[in-house]
Each structure stands twice: as C-alpha cells, then as structure tokens.
Amino acid sequence: MFGKRITLFKLLGFEIKIDVSWVIIAVLVTWSLALGLFPQYYKNLPKATYWWMGVAGALGLFVSIIFHELCHSLVARRYGLRMKGITLFIFGGVAEMDEEPPSAKAEFMMAVAGPFSSVLLGAVFYGVLVLGKESGWPTPINGVIAYLAFINGILAGFNLLPAFPLDGGRMLRSSLWGWKKNLRWATRVASQIGSAFGMVMILLGILNVFFENFIGGIWWFMIGVFMQNAARSSYQQILTRQAFEGEKVRRFMKPDIVTVSPSISIARLVEDYIYRHHYKMFPVIENGRLKGCVNVQQVKEVPQQEWQQHTVSELMRQCSPENTIGPEADALKALSIMSRTQNSRLMVVEGDRLIGIVSLKDMLNLLSLKMDLEGYEGKD
C-alpha cells in the first residue's frame, strides 16, 4: 500500500508517519480550496487570503485524519492489539496493525470509533463556528472552521459506507463474524461488497470524465481502484494468516545455507556469491559462529573501484530481531518481521548457531500450493 514513509512525530505512543503520496493530496486540497471552494463562498477577499485559508484547511484536514486514526488505535490498544503506527497517504490515513482483532466485538468497537470521532470533531468545529460568528471573528477564520466542520461530517459519512475495508465495511464484517462465528466467511462477504462499491466508483469516475468533470472523474476512478485492491488484499491476508496459523518457522526454513566469511573482499562477495547465487543477503560465519549478515544495499554504499580494498567484516550488520528468528517461532511472526523491515530472508538461529534460512518466496510458494491442493479459498 505504501511507498516511502517519513516519521513525523510520536503521539500517545503511536508513530505518526506520512507517505510521500500525501504531498500530492495536500497540494491538491490546498489548490482546490484556494482557487475553488473559498472564493465561491467568500467573495472579494484578497488572493493571498484565499491561499492562507487553503493551507489552513489542508492542515485542519491533516489533523482531522490523524484524530480519526488515533481513535481507532486507542480502541485497538484497549483490546490488546499492537499498533505499528498511523500513516497518512494519498487516499487518507490508516492505523497499521500486525494482526486481526481478537473478536467481533473488538473489531466493531475499533471500527465505530473512527466515524464517531469525526462526528465529534465536526460538532466541535461547528460549535466553534457558532461562537466565532457571534463574537464577530474575521470571515476567513470562520470560513476555514466551517470547512473543517463540513469535511469531518463527510469523512464520517463516507467511512460509514458498508464497503470493506472502510469503517462501515469493518462494522459489517464484525456483525457477520459475530453471527456466523467465521472470520474468513465474514471477510469474504465484506470484501466482495467492498469490491462492488469500488466498481461503482470506477464507473462514476468514467461517467464524470465523459461529462467533462475530468479531475473529479479521475479521483472517483482512483478511489474505486484503491477500494477494489484493498478489499481483495484484505481477504487474501485473512487466507494467509489462517493458512500459516500454528505453523512453525522450522517447517519453512532451508538448512542448506550459503554463507560467507568476514575476511573475503567485497569484490569476491559480489562475483562468487551475489552474482552466482542471486541472493540479496548472506549470513556471515566465522569459526562456526554467526557474526552477522551482509546485503546488497550495503555493498552499493561502497564505490565499485574500492571493492577489492574492503572486506565483508567492514560492511556486515550485527544480528538483531530485525534479521533473525528462532525455529520454533510462529510463521506469522516471520511474515510480520519481513513486512516491517522489508527483509525477504531471515536467518534462523539457535543461540549463536545458524541452522537455516527462511525466505518470503518459499513461504508464499508453500502457501500457493497449500491453497491449490486443499481448495483453501473455498472452505468457509
């Protein structure tokens, strides 16, 4: 879902991050407010004022989305879910979590917290607007506050649509889950509805383009595509979790490991290992002990003309929970580490001994075979 992310700050223990795609929406929102919405409703103000109102409105939207996702995260924490943080991206924001909610009730409470928070924030802004008008505040200030009251109402209404993975879709899934006691079936039904909503938005986008509302049509189309992809990936995620549930890393690891010595040169590492075996990461072994690992990204940081002059020991990274895992650890934990760190291979260790390698490719290949042979997707 995300590209490059930048951590902005921490709030109540949650990392607030921004995807670079958010810059696009921030510019578009500011532009549309400064040149479209505010001049239409508040006539004869200086152009500079409209731009300041646009910037303030975009910042207010930024804060509103963070507040919405923060409420999700706080409720999730209340039910024991570990949240990775909150990320703002081109289509809004998302509270990231490593696992599914523990119960239908937990998911419902988490989901309803979002729209409720937006309604609450919208009511607060509306109250401030009434106070501002009675107190004679300047028109630009009242205009921005009115916009924030309105946009929070829109956020609440849109998120209440029963289209998974929107909040309304999650409320629907939790209700179906509680009824049938079957998370996979509930996710499949909610995802199909979410995908259908996405298709409707795609069609609306195409119609808008034909009726000369090109920019609006493109946005409808993009949101529809996003909703379809998100609904499908959410269902695939459930299938993956349940297929790997209870499986240990030992089952997926490969004991035949290609390792390197810390004393070899970077040039030899590249020629004899990277180009030969096509791996991006290699464990570093000395006297039978695991010393660390070296990867392609580290090699790229050294100028090619200096590869012969430097050794692996100068580049290798120490072992850590980011690149190692135990053989009896849950396979889902391995997937979570790979997702969080973007490492496609983890070293399987016992003490300071390397006993195997587990790779994302091998795990996904086994998942594909398991679903194909067992007809997993059809079992509800």
What does this structure look like?
The protein has 13 helices and nine strands. With 380 residues, the chain is α/β, with parallel strands linked by helices. The strands form three sheets. A four-stranded mixed β-sheet has the order 1-2-3-4. The chain has a three-stranded mixed β-sheet with strand order 7-8-9. α3 packs antiparallel against α5. The longest helix is centred in the N-terminal third of the chain and has 32 residues. The mean pLDDT is 85.
Helix content: 55-70%
* Mean pLDDT over all positions: 85
Q: Tell me about the biggest sheet?
A: 4 strands, mixed
- Please give the radius of gyration in angstroms: 25 Å
Q: Which range does the strand content fall in?
A: 5-15%
Secondary structure tally: strands: 9
| Count of separate DSSP helical elements | 13
Measured distance between first and last alpha carbons: 27 Å
| Shape field | globular
Within the largest sheet, what's the order of strands?
1-2-3-4
Secondary-structure class: alpha/beta
Q: Structurally, how many domains make up the residues?
A: 2
H/E series, N to C? EEHHEEHHHHHHHEEHHEHEEH
Low-confidence stretches: none
Features:
380 residues; alpha/beta; CBS-domain; 2 domains; 4-stranded mixed sheet; 3-stranded mixed sheet; 13 helices; 9 strands; globular
In a nutshell, what does this entry contain?
The protein is α/β, with parallel strands linked by helices.
Chain-wise SSE layout:
Elements lengths: L4 E7 L2 E6 L2 H20 L5 H32 L4 E7 L2 E6 L6 H32 L3 H21 L7 H14 L2 H28 L3 H31 L4 H4 L13 H12 L3 E6 L2 E7 H5 L11 H4 L8 E2 L5 H11 L3 E6 L2 E7 H15 L6
Parallel strand pairs: 2-3, 7-8
Antiparallel strand pairs: 1-2, 3-4, 5-6, 8-9
